[in-house]
Design goal:
Blueprint: E1 21-26, E2 32-38, E3 44-50, E4 56-57, E5 64-66, E6 72-75, H1 76-88, H2 91-98, H3 102-116, E7 121-124, E8 132-135, H4 137-165, E9 170-171
Parallel strand pairs: 4-9
Antiparallel strand pairs: 1-2, 2-3, 5-6, 7-8
Helix pairs in contact: 1-2, 2-3
């Protein structure tokens, strides 16, 4: 019985058939391999394929405070905003640093203040002539305490995932 010709691969399709691997050369990217395959029909097929590499997974978690109505009061986003306001001394500086609109930051901070019933910022009008914003002691405390809680939860989450799924997949470790 004569060998049937290899079917043409549709454009963009990859072929991976390990038993036929003839030669392999690592590409510039560590997970790309350029290979030449010899099919049973004795035709040479060349291509670029993804190498099988052990994947490393990282745990992620999000925490936030919300009120009885389910509205966000404080979370990582508000934390970043307050840190940027503290660093840049104004809502405008924070909005530029975070690549967000001034109004977006302003409305989120005002919403949080309204839900807490307490101010987070002391603002001074004046724009380019000397305006700005400073954090209140409450805002400073929220930043410090939220970061402590977040780091603690992150550590617990990492440990739990490692204990439960660590036998099946690589979690939170670099490949060595």
């Amino acid at each position: 019985m004569p060998d049937s010709p290899s079917p043409a691969l549709p454009k963009g399709k990859e072929l991976y058939y390990p038993p036929l691997l003839r030669r392999g050369v690592r590409g510039e990217a560590s997970n790309i391999i350029k290979v030449e395959l010899v099919c049973p029909s004795s035709k040479l097929i060349k291509g670029v394929f993804m190498a099988h590499k052990k994947k490393i997974f990282h745990t992620r978690s999000k925490i936030w405070l919300e009120d009885d109505d389910g509205n966000v009061v404080f979370g990582l986003g508000r934390l970043r905003m307050l840190n940027a306001i503290k660093e840049h001394g104004s809502l405008l500086g924070a909005s530029k640093a975070l690549n967000m609109g001034y109004r977006a930051i302003w409305s989120r901070i005002r919403s949080t203040e309204k839900r807490l019933g307490l101010p987070l910022l002391v603002t001074k009008q004046g724009g380019a002539k000397g305006g700005g914003s400073k954090l209140t002691p409450l805002a400073e405390s929220l930043i410090q305490e939220f970061e402590k809680v977040y780091k603690s939860i992150e550590k617990i989450t990492d440990n739990e995932f490692e204990k439960t799924l660590g036998n099946h997949i690589v979690i939170n470790k670099s490949e060595n």
